Amino acid sequence: MTELLQEAEKGKYAVGAFNCNNMEIVQAIVAAAEEESAPVIIQASQGAIKYAGLEYIVGLVRVAAAGSKVPIALHIDHGTSFEQVMRCIREGFTSVMIDGSKLPLEENIALTNRVLDVARAVGVSVEAELGKIGGTEDDVSVSEREASLTDPEEAKIFVEKTGVDALAIAIGTAHGQYKGEPKLDFDRLEKVRQLVDVPIVLHGSSGVPSEAIAKAIKIGVSKVNIDTNLREAFVNRTREVLAANPNEIDPRKILGPAREAMKEVIKEKIRLFGSSQKA
Ligand code: G3H
Ligand code: 13P
Ligand code: ZN
Ligand code: NA
C-alpha cells in the first residue's frame, strides 16, 4: 500500500480503498480497477472478517489479485487489537490499519509502534488514526466536534514518534449515510498537510460531495475510503430486480446485477479520485 500511496502523492491523485464483505464485492472492485487501469486497495473491517471469515477474505482477494493486471493491496480497516492485526498479517494481508484513535495520544503512539515493529520486519504497510472519525448517528455539538477533529500539532508529534506509513485524520467526515451535507475543515487539512509528510487518509467518504473530495485530494489526501456507497448500490439494485421480478428464485439473477451496479459506482469513484490509467 505504501508504494501505491507514494505514487499517488507524487501524481496528486488518490487511491480508492473499497470495503469488501463477499465475493461479489471483491469481483466488482477488481473489475472496476481493471476497466479503469487503476491501482486499488481492497479492505476488510473486523465486521467483514467476522461475516466472511479471515481465510475466505484472503482467499478471494488472492484469486482476484493473481489474475489481475492492476496492483492490489489487501488492507485491514480499523484494526483495533494487536492480536487481530497480527492474525491478518500471518494470513497474507499486505497492509494493516491499527486504529488507536480512542486511546490517549501516548498510548495510540505506543500501540502503533508495537504494530510497526512487526509490520516493518515483514514488509507490511501500516495506517494509523488520529482524531475521532465518528458515525453519522452521533449527534455532536460544535465543541464536541472541535474536540474530535485531528489536532495538527498532535499529528506532527504522532508521525515523528511513529514514522507510520499513512495517517487517517478527522476533518468532519463520518462513517455511514449523512443526514445533511458534511462540512469538511479544509484549513485543518492544510495545516496537517504542512506539518506531516506521510500520505493522509480520508475515511467516511461516501456521501461527501464530489467537489469536496476533489478539493481534499488537491490539498493532499491520497487514500479515500468508500463503503456505504457500495452497500447502497448493492441493495438498491437488489430491490429493483426483486421488485421487477417478484418470482425470481435464482440468486445469480439478483446478485449479478448488484455486482454490476457496484462496479459502476467504483469506476465513477476511481475517475473522481484521479487514479484512472495510473496502474
Ligand atoms: O469503517 C467502517 C466501515 O464502513 C466498515 O463497517 O464495521 O460495518 O464492516 P463495518
Ligand atoms: P463510508 O462507509 O462512509 O464510505 O466510510 C468508509 C470508511 O471509512 C471505511 O473505513
Ligand atoms: Zn473508516
Ligand atoms: Na459517509
From TrEMBL:
Residues reported to bind Zn(2+) 1: 78, 175, 203
Protein name per its UniProtKB record: Class II fructose-1,6-bisphosphate aldolase
Coiled coil (UniProt feature): none
Chain positions recorded as dihydroxyacetone phosphate binding sites: 176, 204-206, 225-228
Native species: Metallumcola ferriviriculae
Cofactor(s) annotated in UniProt: Zn(2+)
The keyword Zinc belongs to this UniProt entry's keyword annotation: yes
GO molecular function terms listed in the Swiss-Prot or TrEMBL record: fructose-bisphosphate aldolase activity; zinc ion binding
Binding-site residues for Zn(2+) 2, renumbered to this chain: 99, 129
Location of the active site: 77
